[in-house]
Amino acid sequence: MAAVAFLPEEIILQIVTRLPVKSVGRCRCVSTRWRSLFSDPHFAKSHFQLAPKHRALIFQHLMKLETLGLDLSDTTLIEKESLVLRNLNSPFPFHHKNVEFLGSCNGLVAVRVICPSNQEEECFLIWNPSTGFFKKFPCRRGFSNHEYKSGFGYVSKTDEYILVKNDAILSSKTETWKPMEILPPGADIWMSPGVFFRDALHWLARCRRSRRCRRSRRSRPQRVCHMYAFDLEKEEFSIMQLPSALQTLDIRTWNHGVTREGCLYVMVHKNVYRDGELDYYMVEYWVMRDYGNNDSWTRSFGVKIPSQPARKHWYLSLESISVSETSALVRNRCPLEPENSKLLSTSHYRNEEENSDIYVIETHAPHVVGYEESLCRLD
Questions:
Q1: Relative to the CA of 217, which of 19, 20, 86, 191 has its CA 20 to 30 Å away?
Q2: Which residue ranges make up each domain of the chain?
Q3: Three-class SS of the chain
Q4: Lowest model confidence (mean pLDDT) among 205-214, 284-293, 340-349, 369-378
């Protein structure tokens, strides 16, 4: 009779923690013991740290959600003329036009849902699109439609997720809203979710000041940009100055995030004119090499995007999806819906002098959120 070899559970755990999320799901079906092993919260954290990172995007349309998986190490997928979307099941009981993404962290996505029967009530969920897990949190009533400050992050010391919405924070531990002055009164920030990095949420800010001479053409308000960082553990904010080279430029779009190498970045998009006509768009990336050191900002790369005839009569709106030292994947919010809504058209632009690339996904979806697939959940 042939001998049967058995692997110790410690070895099995070491192997499975390095498998993709879908493969772990199959392993859970092998036996009751394996289901228990691979459903443990500690296993989920180890898996997120050790397994290969696989990023996905969710595109929000009026009546549905669609997803696109990305292998960022393989640019041949992005270089295709079109990418195919697939339907994504969601736990939201309402039309998706009432859904807003507030950010992602550890594979979890924070979602705000406005109740269609009561437009003055908003609910919040934390959802894992990879596994289908979601948890609903207390609703808020009487909110203002002009609220735009939001963010989602994780405090490793207390093992809790924090959701920020305007001047209140929600903890996954207490499951209650706590009023708090997140940023100084009158802070003027870009209308985009805060970027989570180093236990803090980061927003790009706009402060306006006028020149002394009000009669001169220079008396128009000058945009001075910096970055606010809100420490989720200490519950206090600090200010990070942006590069001085960006203070006086006519920048049309700002965007920020974290590079794949683990540094804060700022994307700037400028319109360049010649003889009064739009000549091309310039997209540049600046990286903070040493976190917290304002002097460590350096220009990483830049790429020109030609002014195509189809774009001369509408505003180019770019949002970074993934950024590395020499390349970026961005999405452009195209106002026109393609004939086949399952397809995303793509474009590739290259700067030969700097050996850098920008890949553009054209989409009419009003909201897009990226997340890394994981097994994480809230217990």
A1: 191
A2: 9-52, 53-210+219-372
A3: CCCCCCCCHHHHHHHHCCCCHHHHHHHHCCCHHHHHHCCCHHHHHHHHHHCCCCEEEEEECCCCEEEEEECCCCHHHHCCCEEECEECCCCCCCCHHHEEEEEEECCEEEEEEECCCCCCEEEEEEECCCCCCEEEEEEEECCCCCCCCEEEEEECCCCEEEEEECCEEEECCCCCEEECCCCCCCCEECCCCCEEECCEEEEEEEEEECCCCCCCHHHCCEEEEEEEEEECCCCEEEEEECCHHHCCCCEEEEEEEECCCCCEEEEEEEEEEECCEEEEEEEEEEEECCCCCHHHEEEEEEEEEECCHHHCCCCCCEEEEEECCCEEEEEEECCCCCCCCCEEEEEEEEECCCCEEEEEEEECCCEEEEEECCCCCCC
A4: 205-214
For the domain bounded by 53-210+219-372, which CATH number is listed?
2.120.10
* C-alpha neighbours within 13 Å on the C-beta side of residue 124: 25
Tell me the pLDDT tens digit for each residue of 140-182: 775 555 556 889 999 989 999 999 988 888 999 998 888 888 8
**pLDDT value of position 165:** 86
Distance in angstroms (rounded) separating the CA atoms of residues 65 and 59: 6
Query: Which pTM was predicted?
Result: 0.84
Question: Do the strands 356-363 and 327-333 form a parallel or antiparallel pair, or are they unpaired?
Answer: parallel
Q: For position 124, what pLDDT does the model report? A: 87
Question: ∠ at Cα 229 (225, 235), nearest 5°?
Answer: 145
